[in-house]
Design a protein that fits this description.
heterodimer
Chain lengths: 385, 305
């Protein structure tokens, strides 16, 4: 019992309680809708980590939401709510595609150029939102959401222009192959590579059937760097100070307005990077017509909140969400359960992480119950008397 | 002339859901609870209205059910932000993640896996279905929801400014501790306002699916809730201010449609950005002059300073 109480007081407990609640609510909804929750969860788990190929795909799909998650977490720690990660992500994909299609350089130059273009696009949009907040006091939530829609239509506009539209498709031209960041893209389809991979089924599953790319490594690196930036540098200290108490920060000589713009700029750059890495890393290596927003931004919010807005914590939480989303597709294909159950689960999890007091409340309740029990037993009352 | 009538007609049509959403925002924020979840509540209302109209055969029942379902979603937000003193923005975002999933899941369960509902009976238009058919004036034959929205705006204004309940709501939103010492229950007042706000948002969703279009689709609600929130700020947290702001956003939307239908050399994708760009421009020009209720977004914990 003591161990449980102690555990419930740790921050990670809130996250685990929230995840459990997410599964519980989903189970109830599934049962009400007439699906067996246990079979559904079994399929979900198998569909996300059942084979090496699935695991690889989960890692690939975790890349963008890890980055948007880190971006949101970073902004949140500095007192800003970057709900515009989606728009910054989209602008990242647009800039990366434009540069990747128009510029053709050898790989070692092309890749950094394309990726930087994406990050720069995101950074500019983030800085714009930060500027509106710093200069005019417009809440970043409203402007970011408006920018999300504007960027979605901008993407559709770019796809539709003569210069970029790939005939008879709803996508733009793919970027030059020198900008690809998959692992051994040419070797794995060469004769020699195929021969080798046939002999090694595990590697074949992981390499040949997926778009395994360098993105996740970059994302993990960024998460670590952001963690260091926030906790170990002067800039991070100043940004957090602004987040904790604007007036105190201003009084101690920190430029609050400048901090807001800087923070949104960095946060936007990380989102843009996410977009660029998706363009260089996975097929179709270009932007397509968007009917609805792709959800990388909103999934990033979920990733960040479940991680308690710790940049490093985003690594496991992005893998969790990626597994849920990827496994959710299998659930729909195999069992016919609407994949929206996953959105419900994720929404519930975020909802419960919004209640930071829930795990400590449970531990306080257990302690109270126990102390009541002890005081009501004759033994202890006798001792006290 | 015809274009002007068309413009007014479309403006009224598109601003109606925004008005409901914005009224919801006003009611909730005046009591001190930020409600970013309006969008999610509208999505649930949109589905509930279509499903209600389909299964009961009466669009009015659908409208009511939408209000009730919107309020139920709002209850989640109320419990989190009032009883648990949660971060209201995070809770609102959670609702925006949860509600569309819930609505689509329910839609697929009700209608054999379809992401859209069947065509349902719509609410009537104010002059009936045959008024001035074939003339441009028919465009002024707006949905009955447009009138309801205007009436509700007046009701919200009256309650907020002319009754003792309204005074209490505003007191709780400005200075909850002072209100508390006078014996007003902060949490009860806030619960009532957030539930009311969910109901209004639910009506807003209904005014899309059973008045403008006649079915629930995945894209029926696409950002109206957020534009409504911008209207709340632009309208300075006042019912008629928000109403005017919604009209302006509706007019931009109408302009988009009329320009898109004409022979103007502007790509439709650029035109579609117009309402959102307009929102930002309007906020840049006016936001400096509007001040939020003092306790907006701050959980009230008894005894804390």
């Amino acid at each position: 019992m003591n161990a449980i109480v102690k555990f419930l007081k740790r921050p990670i407990a809130s996250a685990l309680v929230a995840i459990l609640c997410g599964f519980a609510v989903a189970a109830v909804i599934l049962a009400v809708a007439g699906y067996n929750p246990f079979i559904t969860f079994g399929t979900l788990i198998h569909g996300s980590i059942g084979t090496p190929k699935y695991i690889t795909n989960v890692i690939i799909k975790a890349t963008p939401i890890l980055l948007t998650g880190v971006a949101v977490a970073f902004a949140f720690q500095t007192g800003l709510f970057n709900i515009g990660a989606e728009g910054q992500y989209i602008l990242g994909t647009i800039c990366a595609t434009i540069v990747g299609v128009t510029v053709d350089l050898p790989g070692p130059l092309e890749v950094p150029l394309v990726v930087l273009a994406g990050a720069l696009g995101g950074a500019l949009l983030g800085a714009f939102i930060g500027f509106l907040k710093a200069k005019f006091g417009i809440h970043e939530v409203i402007t970011s959401i408006m920018c999300n829609w504007i960027m979605m239509y901008l993407c559709n506009f770019v796809v539709g222009t003569d210069a970029f539209h790939k005939p008879n498709s709803n996508t733009a031209f793919p970027i030059h192959t020198s900008g690809y960041t998959m692992i051994l893209p040419e070797w794995k389809v060469s004769e020699e590579g195929i021969e080798y991979l046939i002999a090694h089924p595990l590697l074949r599953d992981v390499l040949l059937k997926t778009d395994l790319n360098l993105g996740f490594l970059v994302a993990v690196l960024v998460a670590v760097l952001v963690g260091i930036l926030l906790s170990r540098t002067k800039l991070g200290y100043e940004l957090r100070a602004v987040g904790l108490n604007k007036d105190a920060a201003r009084f101690s000589g920190i430029g609050v307005e400048k901090s807001i713009v800087t923070c949104m700029c960095i946060s936007g750059a990380i989102c843009g990077l996410a977009g660029a890495l998706n363009i260089t890393g996975i097929a179709p290596h270009t932007i397509s017509l968007l009917k609805v927003q792709e959800g990388y931004g909103f999934n990033g919010l979920s990733v960040a909140f479940i991680a308690g807005c710790s940049a490093i914590g985003c690594i496991p939480s992005s893998l969790l969400f990626s597994a849920l989303i990827y496994g959710g597709m299998t659930v729909q294909q195999v069992l016919g359960v609407p994949s929206e159950i996953i959105s419900i689960m994720i929404g519930t999890i975020v909802f419960f992480t919004a209640l930071p007091s829930i795990a400590p409340k449970i531990s306080a309740w257990i302690e109270r119950r126990r102390s009541e029990k002890e005081s009501s037993t004759p033994n202890s009352t006798a001792k006290e008397a | 002339m015809n274009n002007v009538i068309l413009l007014i007609g479309i403006t009224l049509m598109y601003s109606t859901p925004l008005v409901f959403g914005a009224l919801g925002g006003v009611v909730s924020e005046r009591s001190g609870v930020t409600n970013i979840g309006i969008e999610g509540m509208m999505v649930v209302g949109a589905l509930a209205a279509a499903a209600g109209s389909y299964f009961t055969g009466s669009p009015w029942m659908g409208f009511l059910i939408a209000g009730i379902c919107g309020a139920l979603v709002a209850l989640l937000h109320a419990v989190a932000s009032i009883s648990f003193a949660a971060d209201q923005t995070v809770s609102g975002v959670a609702i925006n993640l949860l509600a569309p999933g819930l609505a689509l899941f329910a839609c697929r369960s009700f209608f054999d896996g379809g992401a859209t509902s069947p065509i349902v009976t719509k609410l009537p238009k104010i002059f009936g279905d045959t008024w001035m058919q074939g003339t441009p004036w028919a465009n002024l034959n707006v949905n009955v929801t447009t009138v309801i929205a205007l009436v509700l705006t007046a009701v919200v204004w009256f309650v907020l400014y002319k009754t003792k309940w309204g005074l209490r709501v505003r007191a709780v939103g400005e200075h909850p501790a002072a209100a508390d010492t006078l014996g007003i229950s902060v949490s009860k007042t806030r619960y009532a306002c957030v539930l009311c706000s969910g109901m209004l948002a639910g009506f807003g969703g209904a005014s899309v699916t059973i008045a403008i279009i006649s079915q629930f689709t995945q894209t029926a609600i696409c950002g109206q809730g957020f534009i409504a929130l911008a209207a709340v700020i632009f309208g300075k947290w006042k019912p008629f201010g928000a109403y005017g702001a919604c009209m302006l956003f509706g007019a931009t939307q109408a302009l988009t449609i009329i320009l898109g239908g004409g022979s103007f050399p502007i790509p439709s994708t650029i035109l579609s950005m117009l309402p959102y760009v307009m929102t930002i421009i309007v906020l840049i020009l006016f936001v400096g002059k509007s001040v939020a209720p003092k306790a907006d977004g701050v959980p009230y914990i008894k005894g804390s300073r």
